[in-house]
Amino acid sequence: MIILFVVMLMYGFLPTLNVLVLPVYTILAAGTGLSVGLLFAGFQARFRDSVYVSQAVTRFLFFLTPVVYASSRLPAPLDTLYQYNPMAVVVEGFRWALLGSGEPPSLSLIALAYCVMFVLLGAGLLLFNRLEATIADVV
Question: Rounded distance, CA 80 to CA 6, Å?
Answer without folding.
Answer: 37
